[in-house]
Amino acid sequence: MTTLADPRPGGRPGDLDRVPALTADLAARGVHGIVLAYVDTAGVCRVKTIPTARLEAAVAWGVGMSPVFDTFLADDSIVTTDVLGSPDGDLRLYPDLDHLVPLAGQPGWAWAPVDRITQEGERHPGCARTFLRRIVTDAADRHGLAFKAAIEIEWAVGVGSAPADEFVPAATGPAYGAVRQVELSDYTAELLAALAAQGVDVDQIHPEYAPAQFEVSVGALDPVAAADRSVLVRQTIRAVAQRHGLRVSFAPAYLPEGVGNGGHLHLSCWRDGMNLHSGGEGRYGMTATAQAFLAGILAHLPGLTAVTAPSPASYLRLQPSQWAGVFTAWGRETREAGVRVVTGTAGRRDQDANLEVKPVDLAANPYLALGCVIAAGSDGITADRPLPGEITGDPVRYGPDEAAALGVRRLPRSLPAAVTEFRADPVLRAALGPVLADAVSAVRLGEAAAVEGLAPTALAAFYRWAY
């Protein structure tokens, strides 16, 4: 039996002491296997799975997986960089026992996020989860900040028996309509039960705008836990759908036209237990720190799109006048702005006020997206950036002079254009570090090259079932 005195290259002190009780509990629940999950640069969740009896070995020594996955594309082809993409080397996946959960939507299985660590016991510089943790720690050290975050999840529900490459809506009825809710009520009721059993607090679940589209909003957590929760919720949505003979797509554009699936980020800054987006002397109760944080996000939003909208299909979705937030603009409850200031209802603003970052979809790696948004906002605080003027309505109505005065700029219209903005943003690249920044550029350009020349219909089909 492995003991804490063993020279383990990875893992956390004390975890091994927890394994016997955890293993016994999982066995009593009928759990036979554990999914070890992480998200690659392309935003695809990759997994290794182990029998429950192997949990102790995984905690002690990790589970092997090649670092080449950092340069996988969504279609599983591989690009190479100066430091990544070769067949050489190995990493170890270490499960985070604090977030291990039996999967109610997949009886017989449990799930845990992992940290990726080298064979020598060092944090892998390409580990997105480690990156986000570092960014959060840096903001705490430099600015005394903590964060609450949540990621909205939109998905389209298709008929499972449809041809493999097609999307046939599994529900009819209008957007937000009772018809659609009734038609898939058994599915969504089981989904709610599964999420509750897994400890996920759901704020709301409802039919959304696009054909057969639904959305679930979940409670806010610290950023790393919020990113973990986003991955877990999608795993559950997919698993429950399959049990009902359905198929789901989280792709940014599962059809060539329409609004597509978003993955908006909600984020609030806190200091000493106080929400900095409420009770201050700035606009709508924002403190000076919250305003500078918002200004930082706006300043870096063009480069951020290479991280938050990372697929060629993202740019089918990022269109004006579709609530996708394709302008460097902010406004109170303005859903066409790149950043929407959510004040919350009177009486709850000290708890609910937050920022919603709009040009984000679920092809994004949630750890990279949250980390880069926080890095951008933190840079705004460091630079004491002034908040530009607020917009109202649809930014397309502004003429060039008025738009320039308000700092309103159209975000990149293609993935290569977003990469150009990203490469020109030293703050984002420095935050990611050379390995992750290199992987982001290489994977994005690889995705663009893989679909070059495809018409929108073919482009949507290419990514429809990758996410």
UniProtKB/TrEMBL annotation:
Keywords: ATP-binding, Ligase, Nucleotide-binding. It holds the Pfam family Gln-synt_C. Residues 29-121 form the GS beta-grasp domain. SMART domains: Gln-synt_C (SM01230). Residues 128-467 form the GS catalytic domain. InterPro entries: Gln_synt_N, Gln_synt_N_sf, Gln_synth/guanido_kin_cat_dom, Gln_synth_cat_dom. Belongs to the glutamine synthetase family. This is Glutamine synthetase family protein. The lineage of its organism: Bacteria, Bacillati, Actinomycetota, Actinomycetes, Kitasatosporales.
